[in-house]
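Researcher: Going back to the complex we discussed earlier. I've cleaned up the inputs and rechecked each line, so this should be the final set. Can you rerun the prediction on the complete assembly and write out the structure?
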Amino acid sequence: MNPAESTHLVASPRAPETAPATAVTPRLTLQDEALQRTQRRLAVTMILVPPIGVMAAITMVITTGITIVEIVIFLVMYALTTIGVTVGFHRQFAHRSYEARQSVRIALAILGSMAIQGPLIFWVATHRRHHQFSDSDGDPHSPNLHGEGWKAWLGGFWYSHIRWLYAGEITNSVRFANDLRHDKAIVWINNAYPILAILGLVLPSVAGALLIGGWMGTVKGFLWGGMVRLFVVHHAFWSIGSFAHTFGSHPYRTDDHSGNSFWLAIPNFGEGWHNNHHAFPSSAFFGLEWWQLDIGGLVISALRRLGGIKNPNSPTPEQKASKRRQQTID
Amino acid sequence: MNTDQPPETNTDSVVPPPQAESSIPRRSRADIRSWLTAYLAFLLEEEPQSINTELSFDSHGIDSAAAVSLVGDLEEWMGIELDPTIVYDYPSVTQLADFLMTRQERSAA
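Model: Rerun complete. Updated structure for the full complex:
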C-alpha cells in the first residue's frame, strides 16, 4: 500500500466536547512566495551548474587527457548516489517496500542526499503525489497534461524533464510525508541537506587529491566525481518523469502512461521498469522478469543476504497475472 | 485514490480564497477550535482529545512548512486572507481561535 493513499486523514469522530466532528485534509501544495523563491533559486542552480562543470571537464580532457582514476571516481560516486536515490529515497522512504536497519536507512538517506535531487522529505512528498495523481491533474511532473499538437508535446516533455523543478508548486510534505516528519534521524538528515550535498562534492575532490595528486587532481576529482556525475545522475532520474511517461512498453494495466524500457533501466539502476513500478508501487524489485536488469533490486538482495534489510515486497505470480495486459502492442 | 480533492492544483494558488465569501458559513469559536485541534492531531499523528489547546504550536513542534500548510488551509476553510505569521503571533489553539473570531467579524463588517 502506498502510504500517500492513506495520508488524507479524517479526524476522529470523537471530537472534543460540543464541537462537531471535523475532517481535515491538508492542501496538496504550499503556496508561499518566500518558499517558492528559495525553491526556484535552488532548482535553477542545480540545473545550470553541473553542465558548466561538464564543459570544464571536456575542456580538461582535450588539454590534459583523462586517466582511469577519474573514471573510477566518477563510477563510484555515480553508483553510490544512484543507490541512495533508488534504493533509499525511492524504494525505502517513499514506498517502504522493505524493512531496513536504522543504520542502513541513515546510510541510504545520506547517499541519496548527495545526489542533489532535493532534500529527502521534499523528494518523498513529491514522489507520493506523483503516484496519487499519475498523469492526471495534480501530478507534479507529467508530460501528458499540456494539450494537443507537437508544440504542446515538446512543452510537456520539457516540463516533465526539468521545468517542473523550478516552475512547479512545492508539494505539501505535511500531507504526503507526515510519517517522515516524525522520524528524528530522517528530519536531521533532511535538514542537513546542504551540508550533505557539498559533502558529495568534497569526497571526490579529496579522492582526486589523494589518487591523482595536487590541485589538478583535486579539480579533476571534483569535476568527474562531482559535476559530471551530478549531470548524468540528474538526467537519468529526470528521464523517468519525461521518457518513461512517454515511451516504453506497457505489459501491465495502469491508470497512467508509465512505460518499461531496458535502456533506461541501466543508468538509473532499475527505475526504467516504470510500468512495473506503477503497477506494483510497493514492490522492492522493479525488474519483474529474470531478464529485466534491476541493479537496485540486486543491491536489495545483497543487503538482505548481509542482514541489513528484510521482508522486501514483490508481487505474487497471481498478482502479476491479474494486472497483465493481453497484448503488449502499445 | 481519493476523489474528494479539487482536481486543479496549479490554478487555485493565485487567489487564496477561491470561494465566494457568501458560500462559506460563519464559523463558530467551537468550530474553529475543533478544526485547529483536528489539524494539530493530524500533524502530530495523535488523537484530537490528547491535544493541549493551551500549549504553544512551537512546543508541539510545528515547523514553517506545517505553518504554511495550516494557514493556507485555514484561509480556504474560512474564506478570509491571513498572514502566515499568525501562527507565531497567536501561538496556541485558544489564542489563534480568539484571533480568528475577531478577524472573521472584521471581514464580515
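Model: Worth noting: Confidence is low (pLDDT under 50) at residues 1-20 of chain A.
Researcher: Good, that matches what I expected from the previous run.
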